[in-house]
Structures are given as C-alpha cells and as structure tokens.
Amino acid sequence: MSTPNAVGRPTPITAATVRQRPTAMPVHKYTPYEAVEIPDRTWPDRRVTKAPRWLSTDLRDGNQALIDPMSPARKRAMFDLLVKMGYKEIEVGFPASGETDFAFVRSIIEEGAIPDDVTISVLTQAREELIERTVESLRGAARATVHLYNATAPTFRRVVFRGSKEQIRQIAVDGTRLVMEYADKILGDETVFGYQYSPEIFTDTELDFALEVCESVMDVWQPEEGREIILNLPATVERSTPSTHADRFEWMSRNLSRREFVCLSVHPHNDRGTAVAAAELALMAGADRIEGCLFGQGERTGNVDLVTLGMNLFSQGVDPMIDFSQIDEVRRTAEYCNQMEVHPRHPYVGDLVYTSFSGSHQDAIKKGFDAMEADAAARGKTVDEIEWAVPYLPIDPKDVGRSYEAVIRVNSQSGKGGVAYVLKNDHKLDLPRRMQIEFSKIIQAKTDAEGGEVTPKEIWAIFEDEYLPTPENNWGRIVLRSAQTSTSSDGTDTLTVEAVVDGAETVLTGTGNGPISAFFDALASVGVDARLLDYTEHTMSEGASAQAASYIECAIDGKVLWGIGIDANTTRASLKAVVSAVNRAAR
User: Where is this protein primarily located (predicted)?
Assistant: First the structure.
C-alpha cells in the first residue's frame, strides 16, 4: 500500500521496525544461548494440575542477599511465617559459613520450633570440614536434608577452580560420600535424613556433563524406594528463554536413570525477568519441586517468587497447598524480616495491583461485579459460590484478605464507571447511567483543575455538596418540610407540601397523576418550569428500616439535570429527588 506525497509520487507505508537503527552498544561481546535439540519435546502440551513440592530458601539464599542480613529475631519471625503458611521444606541456612547461621539452626531444633511434618535443609560446599560442621548443626533434628553443591560450568572449571571435568565430578562424588559418612556418624537413626545435590550454574553447564555428574552422585547415594535423592538444577544465573530452560529439564528428566527415585528440583533466578515462567515451564517439562523466596527476594534480581507461583496456580483453580489468604500479613512480615519493601505493582500483593484508575477499566469492573451479583441470584447462590468473572481482576481480592475499597481509585484518567463504583460500593447508591456521566464530569473537572487522585471520602463530599443538601449545608431555593397526598375517585393525586421557598415558609399545592407529577404542578406556582424525563429507585438495604434512593432526571428551565433523594419513605425520597434537581438548576 502507498499514498501520494507532496509531489505526487507514492510514499511507501513502512512498519515502525524498519525505522529503527543499530545502536553503538557492544553486542559483539555476547553470544546466543545454545538451543537443545528435542524434536519430540512433550512439555508444551502439558498442563500443571497440581502443586509442586515447595522449598523456601528465604533464610538462606534470600538472607545472604540482604544489605542487612536478618537478626536472630527476624530469622525466627520468617521461619514461623513459612511454617504457618504451610511450607514443609525450608532451607534454614548455611551453618558452616559462620556462628550466626549455626546458632539459628541449633535454636529452632533445641526450642522445638520445627513441626514434625517439616523438613529443614542446610547448604554446604563440598569440603570435609564444612560438611562435618553442617551435619553437626542438625543433631537432634527429626527431619533434615543436607544440600551439597559445586559449580560445574566451563567458566568456573577454567577460571575459578582450574580443574578438569573429572576433577569437578570427583568433588561432587567425594562430597556426597562425606555427607553420608558424617550423617551416619553424627545423626544416626535419630534423624530422617535426606540428601540434595546441585550442579551449580547448571544453566551454563553442558547437559551431558551435568547428567554425568548427577549420575555419579546417585551411584554413591544409591536412591531406591524410600530413599529418594533431590537433584536440584539451578539457574544460578538466568541465561535463556523459559522455553529453552524447559527443554533442558525435559532432556534431563528423560535421560536420568532411576528417575522414579529422583525429586527433580528447579531453582530459577530472575536475571532475565522470566523466573516465574521458567519455573512453570520446568514443571511442565518434568520438575517435581520448586525452590524460591517470598516476593522474589534473593541475589541480584532475586530468586523466583514463591508467592506469584502459588497464586498463579490458585488463579487457575489449582490449590497451591500454601495459605495466602492473609497476603498483607505475609508481606508485612517479609518486609520486616528483609528490611525491604514490596513494590506497589508486585503481582497479587502490591498496594496497587487490584486498583484501576482508567475509566474504561473501572466501568468494566463495575459491570463485572453487577453481572456476578445477577448471575449468583439467578442461580440461587452467593457470589462466593460461583466462578469469578470480573474484568481486570484475575482473582477476587477478598480471597487474599483484601477489601474492595481500593479496587477503583479516581484520578484524571477515570470515567463514570469508577465514580459509580465508589458510590455503590461505599454508599449503596446505584446511579443510573446518565447520572453517572453527569457526576463523573464534575469529578473530572476537579481532577483536571487540581491533578492527583480523588479519594472515596472526597468523592462523597463532592456528591453531597452537588446533590444532597444537609442540615449543616442546606443550600438551594427549596427546603422540603413535609408532604401529604390524597387521591380522588378519578385517580388524580393532590399533593400538599410545606416547604421553605427562597427563605419563606410556604404551602404549595398541586395535582397530577402521581406524587411527582403533582409536585411539578405545585412548583409551577413559584416559577419553576420542570418536567420529568426519567425516574428510577432502589432500596439501599434490607429490613423494615431500609432506606430508598430515588433518582430523577428533569428538564428545568431549559437545563437537563439529575436529582437524588434518600428517605425511608419512597414517596418522600422521590420528592427530595425533585428538590435536589430544582435546587441544582438554581445554583
């Protein structure tokens, strides 16, 4: 397709990408990540239908990444939180790294803080003195796992250790044997003991070599029925797309011997910002277990976020087996322990994640809530008993302990839906659509003039000032005192109203085919030219003392305006609505 330019020649319409230009950034320094050849890969067709085994490493990988590592009190608060949430595998430290971690492990064992169904895990490098100290920290534990690791990637073999593949493999083998020896010597039969091995930097390790090392470790441990081994394949640094990561997991899962006795564990970091996706796809590719931290705490860009992973399952109808029902309590404790705030946009827990400012979003949310209520009523159920289906809200905020108060917040981008939602949710006023438009323009004028957000309290104050004169601020030409109606034999209504008109006590009388029509007739005697355009009402609550809200759209002296009246008596509410509209016209 082309269009003529100023001199009549066709000008091609090109895509935006064509106009992009190369940068001076040193892209030559980096090479593409190696793909995995699996023509018959199966993971893309799989679905995650149950929760994996979870391990929290907040007290180890998370803690070591803090500017101010946790004090003993903060560590204990984190441990107690993880137990309360339902985590059954918790990595509690690196006890051979120093007295602080060692003392913490001893404290939770000696104080009986570990429930019988919780397994603690401790990390160690493959040096004998470190392994002995690590196992010693577990003395008296009912259930414990020693997690041994050594780096296997080419860069580490060449630069850090200056060792051959065989030397690196032997480190893992010797370390495994030492763990077994010290566990037997120190722990004996008192502890249900488990073993975990990680080829660190798995993401940069050749797959065949990673497999060789894992097989050699298994040859020592001898996994069998009732004696599993945890093989953890860490993305110590995230280096590839989640799909390639999944390919690596499927390759390992296919090629490991004794697979039925292996718990294949994934440990993603978030260097490329895709740790959650990498973990989820690894599950599809055969992983059994995920290691991570609450809210993605951890080295550099963090470990994978256990909260997002768990809530993603929840949002798909899969029980995460972890309790997130009081997510703000979880956040507050994590912020205290880590001394780091959770971002307001953080999935599922940030201050703004259930909040919409956009007018179109707010309108859709309001309609979604209304549709849910109608659907539930039609099915004879409560809203909580039917499928969640509200636009822009992937889950019901109430399910994680949030209220609906902050779902819609109003600023200059908001429209009628947001304002209407606040009034309905906070004040039980279900404004007719055209009245929503009218009032939203009033709010829009304020936000355009002053900028920033308008709080629900401010919205109500503006609404009262615009539509509902109060005894403290009783503006307007007319103040309704009382009203009485009578109906003649021909169906004509006569309305007698005691009112204050322009500051003077007055009695007005009018007739019509209903109280509203009769009131318009009465108002004509004081110079008000009004006619009814639309009328609607609803109860604001249930019970004998319930109040009604009446909404009236009127044409008054050439202006089209809405009024609202609230009263326990529906007739009086409708008359108040007329007064509201008339007074607004005279303002």
Answer: cytoplasm
